[in-house]
Design goal:
43% of the residues lie in helices and 13% in strands. It has helices at residues 21-28, 33-50, 70-78, 94-99, 113-118, 131-146, 155-168, 174-181, 194-204, 213-226, 238-257, 310-324, 335-338, and strands at 54-60, 84-87, 104-106, 121-124, 127-130, 152-153, 185-186, 210-211, 229-235, 269-274, 303-307. The protein has a 6-stranded parallel beta sheet with strand order 7-2-1-9-10-11, sandwiched between helices. A 3-stranded antiparallel beta sheet has the order 3-5-4. The chain has a two-stranded parallel ribbon with strand order 6-8. The relative contact order is 0.17. The model has no long low-confidence stretch (mean pLDDT 95).
């Protein structure tokens, strides 16, 4: 009798013993449901980190910094695991509050929000922050903008200079690390955050600047064109995820203009942490398999989505990487590619 093609790889139940987080994740990859998916995400991340041909893009959505996740992202930059970051404005502004020495506080969603307003306390579900401290962060960004030359900037240029500004003041945030290690940071919806408030404050003081989103995307595409292969890590979805996905599509269309037909350069590796679902039709829940039809992800490349809160998945995944990966990836310093006059 021929071998049953459906009964080849044995599920291995998790036993209880002393082990590292990385060992547990490898074990979970042989189980089921979202536990298996978390283990698969981890093993694919290891493969992309070990691949010397790959440029790793991270799409960072939502408001992870107020939830205590920003130092994990900063560590990934410090240790060379992220080559390009595409983020919401929230994640790269709200980390600055703690980096300035202020605090977030453990709260509850079961509260009278009109009372919080009276006490100038802002709520993020079960996290509180002083509105006055938040304003100090926005004022700091406005101070930076007031010192800029008027002109047209991509967000990568703007945030590179801001990282330098913060570093000079001893404020060690995500963009500070990105500046230090030459990691470009893009934020296609930057004004949807404290940066937007700060920009308006500066504009009313006579300092106007233009953030050019087309220039932004062009620089991102140029990085991908320069890269032999690309990999993606999506924390949530939204604008960061779709922007990175469209980088692959843009390369196809640019090749068409050169007379090269049916050219595809999809992301070789892709992992996604999300709580959204595909049946609503939104990008945040769209599967990595769906992205194959657009030429965004590789038909044959390793890919996995885990449906879990990122505040659970990120600490586990990053600590496992810290345990297991002992060889630091060569730094690409891609900021010098798109910002030669700034990235020296």
């Amino acid at each position: 009798m021929s071998e049953n093609p459906y009964l080849r790889e044995r599920l291995v139940s998790v036993d209880v013993r002393s082990r590292r987080i990385s060992e547990l994740l490898h074990s979970m990859a042989r189980t089921a449901y979202q536990g298996r998916k978390l283990g698969e995400v981890y093993e694919i991340m290891l493969r992309m980190f070990e691949d010397p041909k790959v440029t790793v893009f991270m799409g960072l959505a939502a408001s992870m910094s107020v939830a205590g996740m920003w130092k994990l992202i900063k560590w990934l930059i410090d240790e060379g695991f992220i080559d390009v970051l595409v983020s919401t404005g929230a994640n790269i502004s709200e980390d600055i509050i703690e980096a300035m020495g202020f605090n977030y506080y453990m709260g509850t969603p079961c509260v009278d929000d009109s009372e919080l307003l009276k006490y100038k306390v802002d709520r993020f579900y079960d996290v509180y922050v002083s509105e006055l401290d938040y304003r100090k962060m926005e004022k700091l960004i406005a101070e930076f903008i007031m010192g800029l030359d008027s002109g047209i900037y991509s967000t990568a240029e703007f945030l590179y200079l801001f990282g330098r500004f913060l570093g000079e003041r001893g404020i060690d945030a995500i963009v500070t690390s990105a500046y230090r290690y030459g990691v470009p940071v893009f934020s296609p919806a930057l004004v949807d955050s404290g940066y937007g408030i700060a920009a308006v404050l500066a504009a009313r003081e006579g300092r106007r600047l233009i953030l050019d989103m087309v220039k932004d995307f062009d620089q991102l595409v140029r990085i991908a064109e320069h890269s032999e292969e690309t990999a993606v890590i999506y924390v949530g979805g939204g604008v960061p995820k779709d922007t990175i996905n469209l980088v692959a599509v843009a390369q196809t269309l640019l090749a068409e203009r050169r007379g090269v037909h049916d050219y595809y350069k999809p992301h070789k590796y892709a992992v996604q942490i999300t709580t959204d679902l595909p049946q609503w039709g939104g990008l945040s829940g769209a599967t990595l398999e769906e992205a194959v039809s657009w030429g965004k992800t590789s038909p044959t490349g390793p890919k996995a989505t885990v449906h879990v809160d990122a505040t659970i998945a990120l600490p586990v995944l990053v600590h496992a990487v810290a345990e297991e990966v002992v060889t630091r990836r060569p730094r690409k310093r891609l900021v010098s590619l798109i910002l030669p006059e700034l990235g020296r």
